[in-house]
Amino acid sequence: MLNTIQSELLTVELTSPGSAPNDNFRFDRTGYITEVVLKDGTRFAASEPRNLSHPSSNGRGFCSCNRWDISEEVGVGEYFPIIGVGLIRKPDEQKYRQFNRYEEGFIPFEIKCEMAENIATYAVLPMPCQGYAFHETRVIKAIGNRVENRVTLRNVGEKPATVMEYCHNFISIEGMAVGPDYTIEFPQVPDLTGLHFQEAERGGETNFEGFGHGFRMKRYEPQSYSVALEDYSFYKGEPFRWKVSNTAAGAYVLGTDTIQLSRVKIWSSDHMVCPEIYQNFTIRPGETLEWSRQLEFGRL
């Protein structure tokens, strides 16, 4: 089921929990944004491709991921939780794989959703499992040409959890293919012009070149490539900003992530560019954490 919220400048499409593509076992099912459309019709989201070195997890648009895996703590046939998703029954001796589907025995978390003209509010009800339980709320709000994404996560279980969280931004401005028209900027990062970066997953040459305070795509390339920033001496604890632009489309996405930055990775394939801004945190029993991610959409 598709829901929409809107401001005077934006329409934001959100897919309901359990409806494709918001039915995989990787991405948080709250606030799953599958498209953002400017008033002039410019579009910014795309679906995860299938020509990858690993199976596609059917991601789309702007969807969050909580990388926290306790599957090795449980036996075959027992359940383990995935934050924002549900309880998965372990089918075999293998550990959880975020690309797999786990329909058999799966128990989705109960998620309550309230929709207003420009606000969508989600609440994930706790379901204790293996000593873990969480209450999550997420508020998505459209204001002018911005989308605010605010999260509150409370540990109501018996055990602490150490989580790597990020938003997987599947960006394709007007569906345009990867190439020199795309740039990825990080205003807080030193000038990267002339620097060379190894492919983050496989090593070797990438399709990224240092360009000002960020990167430019060298050419069209259907194959997936990724690079990661390794030196964070520039980071002073303030909100982290990034910008993806396409000069041919004449449009951009500007992100502001109010988190404790732990990693920056940029991934691309065929027609999409995906900046991934990570945080790591440990949330203890009784503790509540809050963070926000803001997206601005506009014309160059």
What does this 3D model show about the protein?
- The protein is mainly beta.
- The chain has a single domain (2-299), classed as Distorted Sandwich (Beta-galactosidase, Chain A, domain 5), CATH 2.70.98.
- 0% of the residues lie in helices and 46% in strands.
- It has strands at residues 2-6, 10-15, 33-38, 62-67, 79-82, 86-89, 107-108, 111-115, 119-124, 134-143, 146-155, 161-169, 182-185, 208-210, 214-217, 225-229, 240-246, 251-258, 261-269, 272-283, 288-299.
- The strands form four sheets. It has a ten-stranded antiparallel sheet, with no helix packed on it. The chain has a five-stranded antiparallel sheet with strand order 4-12-20-19-16, with no helix packed on it. Strands 1-2-3 form a three-stranded antiparallel sheet, with no helix packed on it.
- β1 (2-6) and β2 (10-15) form a beta hairpin.
- The two termini are 33 Å apart.
Index terms:
single chain, Beta-galactosidase, Chain A, domain 5, 10-stranded antiparallel β-sheet, 300 residues, 5-stranded antiparallel β-sheet, mainly beta, 46% strand, 21 strands
